[in-house]
Amino acid sequence: MIGKEIISEKYTTIAHATEIMDERADFDELSYEHGCSLDYLRKFSTISKEDADAMFEQLTNLGLTEKMAVKIIDLLPETEEDLKIVFYRVDVPENKDEILEVVSKFK
Q1: Which residue, of 31, 40, 52, 68, has the greatest Cβ tally within 10 A?
Q2: Mean pLDDT value of segment 102-106
Q3: Tens digits of per-residue pLDDT, 46-74?
Q4: Is residue 3 part of a domain?
Q5: How far apart are CA 45 and CA 42, in angstroms?
Q6: Pairwise CA distance, residues 2 & 54, whole Å
Q7: Is 80 helix (H, G, I), strand (E, B) or coil?
């Protein structure tokens, strides 16, 4: 990474990262590290990019930050206890039932 600088950062879901890596794999041969990353992403991607985008929209409309919405989409918590783990060191929002309802729509 010598000579490289970070221009911007953006949180992204596993589903979106999988799509990006698949497009790169179609365009050019992936390095060993990129291939391992793509294998990992494929194993742990549980929903489609379209569903992830729709869920992201709904979660951010509930007042969640981009970072928290992405974590919820990637982990798909099923219970209030699971949700508390996602919000470790951060107060769990009052609308936790609404958050779990959104997640259950896309499971």
Answers
A1: 52
A2: 94
A3: 999 999 999 999 999 999 999 999 999 99
A4: no
A5: 5
A6: 37
A7: helix
Q: What is the pTM of this model?
A: 0.86
> For residue 83, what are the contacts with CB-CB under 8 A and spacing of at least 6?
72, 77, 92, 96, 99, 100
Element (H, E) at 76: none
pLDDT at 30 over 60: yes
Do 40 and 55 fall within a single domain?
no
- The domain containing residue 73 runs over which residues? 49-106
Q: Which pair of tokens denotes residue 52? A: 């992830």
Nearest to 49 by CA among 29, 27, 31, 22: 22
Please report, to the nearest 10 degrees, the dihedral formed by the alpha carbons of residues 53, 65, 10, 72 taken in order.
-50
Under 8 Å between Cβ of 82 and 75: yes
**Whole-number Å distance between alpha carbons of 14 and 40:** 10
**Whether residues 53 and 33 fall in one domain:** no
